[in-house]
């Protein structure tokens, strides 16, 4: 019998009558069962978060840091368990799941340090004669309960990018775990339950859309942090009311392979960037612009790299490419590619679905307005174009509604700096793919890719607000 996972609601382990079976994307086996939280469950969790805030806001730095260290130690101790569970419920190749769990430990350890760095500044106020004798200082204070909504593609680490800074900054959080693979975070909630956090400081629940929508509209939440699709995210922002909103909404990341560059390195890294976790990554490489003098060399190297990939069982250590999250995702990817082909695109390899699997796909000559070029495909496909002039390549990179991250391979410092100054994106990665991320760096985008930044320090800033104290030095008449 599959294991049953209760959800963590206001410090209590609960179930409801709305059962949810979690299936393995590779073979369809039931990995475990849980249940959707009801409106009543969410109300309980929300009230518990409001109550817990009276305690979390006063927690001392050493107390918050100790909780986060305990969570990091617990996750590291149970690494193998989390790796296996994530691989089964998300279909993520086991070697990628292992990296994600290790990144989760790093995220929590970084949050330990950021909890210690929440400070302020001293401000001289005697800049005018009328302000003589005055000075001020600022201190950051937690803002209140956080509503978090995390995606399926990184079921542990992207959720921790909401939970960890909330704990570090003294805020409670109610997290909506992804419907496809909630078991990883429900298991992590066991670690939370072992800490000294007040009950209600963290709730982790799967919710259907109707129930989860309350996270968006409920004014008791001070901030909404959402990672997911652009259409959903911007709609949430419009309905979120007065609360702060942090959105990480993906993109269609571009890469430039300059005339003077390491083409073999570019091909190797673009293979990883385009096809890691079947392309189901917000910063997956989707568009590559190669100098025309290096096109043949690059394509030969890229196709050679793809030919080395192992496709199959995610539990096999040698697997590079596993299934997509469901057959619907694979089927619509094939439809988009067929539409591009009808408009003149050529598929050099791949292009077909096999159940939940989709072949790694390289496309050339696709119209720039086609879906596979202009929108976020979230699939194992990549488009290759050529350019003559470097400025032209920068224009092509910016010819997008999205701007999360971009990459450039070049030996030219001038071109690297020009790219950094010109590309409209949250991050420009030099001599690597835009898929690169380490968890303490600022991460987020512009245009349709979202608002604000994640990364522990930057999330803490969103989850706190500065308060100013002003002192007027006056003489004590009794002194």
Name of the CATH class of the largest domain? Alpha Beta
Low-pLDDT parts are: none
Figure out the total of helices. Answer: 15
CATH superfamily of the largest domain: Aldehyde Dehydrogenase, Chain A, domain 1
Main pleated sheet: 7 strands, mixed
Structural class: alpha/beta
- The N- and C-terminal alpha carbons lie at a distance of 78 Å
Helix fraction by DSSP (H/I, runs of at least 4): 25-40%
Number of strands: 25
Radius of gyration: 24 Å
CATH architecture annotation of the largest domain: 3-Layer(aba) Sandwich
* Overall number of structural domains: 2
Question: Looking at CATH, which topology of the largest domain would you report?
Answer: Aldehyde Dehydrogenase, Chain A, domain 1
The geometry reads as globular
User: Which whole number gives the mean pLDDT?
Assistant: 97
Can you describe this structure?
The protein is an alpha/beta fold. The protein has two domains: 3-249 and 449-467, Aldehyde Dehydrogenase, Chain A, domain 1; 253-430, Aldehyde Dehydrogenase, Chain A, domain 2, CATH 3.40.309. It is built from 15 helices and 25 strands. It has helices spanning 39-56, 61-77, 79-90, 94-115, 157-169, 183-193, 209-217, 230-239, 263-275, 295-307, 327-342, 371-374, 390-398, 413-422, 456-462, and strands at residues 3-4, 7-9, 12-14, 19-23, 30-35, 122-124, 134-142, 146-149, 173-177, 202-206, 223-227, 244-248, 253-257, 285-291, 346-349, 353-354, 357-358, 361-364, 381-387, 402-403, 405-409, 427-430, 446-447, 450-451, 464-472. Strands 15-18-19-14-13-21-22 form a seven-stranded mixed beta sheet, sandwiched between helices. Strands 10-9-8-11-12-24 form a six-stranded mixed beta sheet, sandwiched between helices. Helix 2 runs antiparallel to helix 4, helix 3 (79-90) packs across helix 4 (94-115) and helix 4 runs parallel beside helix 5 (157-169). The mean pLDDT is 97.
